[in-house]
Protein: Synaptogyrin
Amino acid sequence: MDGAGSFGAGRAGSAFDLTAFIKQPQTILRVLAWIFSMVVFASIINEGYVNMGSERLHCVFNKNADACNYGITVGIMAFLASIFFLALDIYFPQISSVKDRKRAVLLEMVFSGFWTFLWFVGFCFLASQWSHTSPKELPLEQASDAARAAIAFSFFSILTWAGLTVCAVQRFLLGTDLTLFTTEHMGDLPPKQPYPSNDVIGQTTIPVDAYQSPTLIETVETRPPGYKIPPAF
Structure:
């Protein structure tokens, strides 16, 4: 498990590899989601409103201001969220706590799934309103390209945010693998105490050398009665 960490990232404190980070599918999808969201809300803001010979502007999507407001709001929020989660991806390997990593992945998973749903609703909403827009009521030559771009990139945003949701789910499932919960990431847990010795509680271990019997010294008192010292040759 050398070099492996929890929730799909390297060990905490490891050096940041820009090349490997850019090549990650998650990073590519994040950048695409950022670009697509910018195209959607910028197209509507710049060319999504037309006038009918007066100062009052009408939303190009069947004069429904809610359609334009929805596309702008979802697009701007997705734009800001992409920047936030991109920064979080860069900082993620520096998070040492497994609990904090889990919260970050859960936040990304829930937000990505929810925004996939919002983009799906937005695509259906904009496409429906555009299909009911009549050239007789609005001068569509002024904003037709912007409307089509907003609808197209809303659809592309569904794919990118769905891909980000899949990546987040994979990271979450990878993080729940207990083999990845190394001791280096268990910052919230106290260090384990060593196993106690086989000694009885309250007793002190005595070294084996301490049980050596004393050297026998032959004295007169230790000789049995009638014992005679053999003569020396």
In short: Residues 178-188 have pLDDT under 50 and may be disordered. The CA atoms of residues 117 and 131 lie 21 Å apart. The first strand starts at residue 49 and ends at 51.
